[in-house]
Design brief:
It is a single chain. By secondary structure, the protein is of the alpha/beta class. Helix content is about 45%, strand content about 15%. It contains twelve helices and eight strands. A four-stranded parallel beta sheet has the order 2-1-3-4, with helices on one face. A four-stranded parallel beta sheet has the order 6-5-7-8, with helices on both faces. The chain is globular and about 60 Å long. The structure holds zinc ion (ZN). The site of zinc ion (ZN) has 6 residues, from loops.
Length: about 325
């Protein structure tokens, strides 16, 4: 890790020594170069800007987002960006270091967490609390205490999209009308999605969901008034629960007759499988849109479709 950062610094130093400082006004085709770290930002920009920009996602489809480290090629891509969008949380803490070592005078930098009200990571009853036995991890978590999964609430997604659109219009005035119209149409769809979630959850028989997995949906459940039990917080890098944690979730499902146990995308699903087998609760995916599979990526699936599928899964869990 340290070695990798060192190599990256070297490459940046070499770039400036040899004077191949990229021109950042736009790509050779006259389009803006927009680089994003993870999939929600990728999809938002794609919806707003279509093919008016050269859009690059650093994370590969199907890859785990929390352990992502930039390659030397990624660093060059960032350096060549007119607009760089990242989350601003613990998973992309590397961004600050990288940007500090670059000339960013002509680069617009956008952290999604700066445009919504952030909340701290929370530990609910029964959740695995790695603070007790791993001091290093405790500091890691408490350092980065804000929950980074801001995009999981469609209301936050709308705020982020509005802000990205404003910025795009400012740095690329010639396409401002295009961006504004595309964003307005997309936001209208997201508002419908928001209304659908609101109605679905307001009218539900149950208000509690159970996760045999990490829980990155804090902003989502806060927005619609759901409560939850989960094995791990969104911050956790742990995926092996203790027997007590699994037993707690199994008991909750039995006591409250909860029909569904959720897992998140790109999960090993082991814990959800165990809980499902033990309780008879159906195992379902609630997609937190960190990243998507290569197959979904290639077929153009995005935030809206994934969230609509989530609505279907929630209906099974709450009614
Ligand atoms: Zn996450």
């Amino acid at each position: 890790m340290k070695k990798q950062i060192l190599i990256i610094m070297l490459i940046i130093a070499m770039l400036s020594v040899f004077g191949c400082k990229p021109s950042r006004t736009a790509g050779q085709d006259g389009k803006l170069n927009v680089t994003v770290t993870i999939f929600p930002a990728y999809d938002f920009v794609r919806q707003i800007a279509g093919d008016k920009v050269n859009l690059t996602m650093l994370l590969s489809p199907g890859a785990e987002s929390h352990s992502f480290e930039p390659s030397p090629r990624d660093i060059i891509t960032i350096q060549n960006s007119d607009l760089f969008i990242f989350v601003g949380g613990e998973s992309d803490a590397w961004v600050e270091r990288i940007l500090q070592s670059m000339n960013t005078d002509n680069m617009s930098i956008f952290a999604m967490m700066d445009f919504v009200d952030v909340v701290e990571e929370e530990f609910v009853e029964g959740m695995e609390h790695d603070h007790d036995h791993d001091h290093e991890e405790e500091e890691y978590c408490e350092d980065a205490e804000y929950d980074e999964h801001v995009w999981t609430s469609p209301r936050n997604a709308i705020l982020i999209i509005r802000s990205i659109t404003e910025l795009l219009c400012k740095i690329d005035e010639s396409n401002a009308e295009f961006y504004t119209e595309k964003a307005a149409a997309y936001i209208e769809e997201l508002q419908k999605l928001d209304a659908a979630f609101y109605e679905l959850i307001a009218g539900a028989k149950r208000k509690t969901i159970v996760f045999g997995d990490r829980f990155p949906f804090r902003y989502f459940v806060d927005a619609y008034g759901l409560s939850y039990y989960a094995a791990f917080s969104g911050c956790s890098t742990d995926t092996e629960p203790s027997a007590a944690t699994v037993a707690f979730l199994i008991n909750k499902i039995r006591a409250e007759q909860i029909p569904v146990v959720f897992h998140i995308e790109l999960s090993n699903e082991r814990m959800a499988n165990t809980i499902s087998e033990e309780t008879g609760a159906k195992k379902l995916l609630l997609h937190s849109v960190h990243n998507i599979t290569k197959r979904d990526f290639d077929s153009g699936i995005g935030y809206l479709e994934l969230m609509r599928r989530n609505a279907g899964a929630l209906r099974e869990a709450l009614y």
